[in-house]
Design brief:
Layout (H helix, E strand, L loop, with lengths): L1 E9 L5 E10 L4 E5 L6 H8 L7 E6 L2 E2 L5 H9 L1 E5 L10 H6 L8 H6 L4 H13 L15 H14 L4 E5 L7 H18 L2 E5 L3 H7 L2 E6 L2 E7 L5 H8 L8
Parallel strand pairs: 3-8, 3-9, 6-7, 7-8
Antiparallel strand pairs: 1-2, 1-4, 4-5, 9-10
Helix pairs in contact: 5-6, 6-7
Bound molecules: adenosine-5'-diphosphate.
Length: about 250
Amino acid sequence: MIKFEDVGKKYPNGYEGLKHINLEIEQGEFVAIIGLSGAGKSTLIRTINRMHDVTSGSLTVDGTDVMSLSGRSLRRFRRKIGMIFQSFNLITRTTVIKNVLTAFVPDMPWHRSLFGIYNENEKMKALEALDKVGILEKAFVRADQLSGGQQQRVALARTLAQNPQIILADEPVAALDPVTANQVMDDFKRINQDMKISILINIHHVDLALKYCTRVIGIRAGEIVYDGPSDKVDKEILDKIYMGGQEEEV
Ligand code: ADP
């Protein structure tokens, strides 16, 4: 369980990115975080794997105080949490399978990682992960030969190879056309349902959030203004999250 208790995040310049966040997310939930640009969506999910430090309150994952971790314990903790970005973050000049295999590097002895030597078990796991997202036949194609949707699937396979308990996805479909965005959301949904991995996804497209996710968290100026089932989100709630708001320049 991910638990935020009165969490605040103040940036070094004094700006309060998050204020009084209280949340409990059970294992296996599929949660969309929606809000205007600059509302704090990215800040919120990045506190969970300590890409950002919280500055007040308590944040725990399965009872572990995230702020108490450092060095090796933090690295081990982060292995349980996959991260997916809008820009895919692949090594584009190499093959798909090699991209997925990089998931194993943190656990490998240095001499194997130095030479990129992977064992049969790692190769099988990488191929299985590609199979789960339906692009096994692309394993030996260079990543830059793939479409945006396929590249995001490779990123998802790389994350799955890590055997995560939680996946954090920061605007994973923002760079994709509507049809491809739906396909990638289908992948997230299938992974959530089949593997019981918790998924938290920041998403600009409200229609996709409501269609695919079971729970929606609406955030505005660093505060939660809605937290509930996606099928209860109506115009009044959307107004609370978005109305009269200024989209920040990004
Ligand atoms: P969102 O993901 O909803 O677009 P962010 O979480 O990226 O929003 O940002 C929330 C707010 O925090 C924004 O107003 C942004 O300008 C501010 N912010 C983000 N990073 C920093 C930083 N490093 N220093 C100061 N303010 C920041």
